[in-house]
Design a protein that fits this description.
By secondary structure, the protein is of the alpha+beta class. It has 2 helices and 6 strands; from the N terminus they run αββαββββ. It is globular.
Length: about 180
């Protein structure tokens, strides 16, 4: 992951004020879309769009996510890695919802609970196939998992999805 993926002060902002406003409106709408997704009621998490091509998901890991040996089950790794990469990629696409077409992940360390962050970053592509990567950092900043995904445009307009245009979506607050 590049240093700009973790340093919002180094974010590559759009050139003029109208582009910046539109980009930020899209980013906030993506955050609303994440908050409105029914699956996210099962996870204490919050999406933060940092800049174009970069997204973070702040989440809590508790015993309800553990496998029999007392660490986070792979489903949690997959969900957070896929979502972080997906939303990083969808910052580049303002008209339609993306679909994950493939995702590979690598477990590097067990995640035993507490706060964690999944960081996603766009790698390449803008038209047909978009490649993005992600990683999970535990509360101490150690990488515990990494993933790479490919995403493509669907026929589903973002504007048709609950949460994307609804500013009244309740947002989960986590530190």
């Amino acid at each position: 992951m590049s240093s700009t993926a973790t340093r919002p002060d180094l974010a590559a902002e759009p050139a003029d004020a109208s582009e910046l406003t539109e980009a930020r409106r899209h980013w906030r709408a993506l955050e609303g879309l994440y908050a409105a997704a029914p699956i996210n009621r099962q996870f204490v998490s919050r999406l933060e769009i940092v800049e174009e091509g970069c997204a973070r998901i702040h989440f809590d890991v508790g015993p309800e996510h553990f496998h029999a040996a007392g660490a986070a089950h792979g489903t949690l790794y997959f969900k957070m890695l896929d979502d972080a990469a997906f939303y990083a990629a969808n910052t580049l696409v303002t008209d339609c919802f993306l679909l994950t077409t493939a995702f590979n992940l690598l477990f590097t360390k067990p995640l035993h609970g507490g706060k964690a962050i999944a960081e996603g970053r766009w790698v390449s592509g803008r038209r047909r196939v978009i490649l993005a990567e992600s990683r999970i950092l535990d509360a101490e900043g150690n990488e515990v998992g990494r993933g790479t995904g490919t995403f493509q445009r669907s026929r589903i307009p973002l504007s048709s999805l609950a949460g994307y245009t609804d500013s009244a979506v309740p947002r989960v607050q986590i530190a």
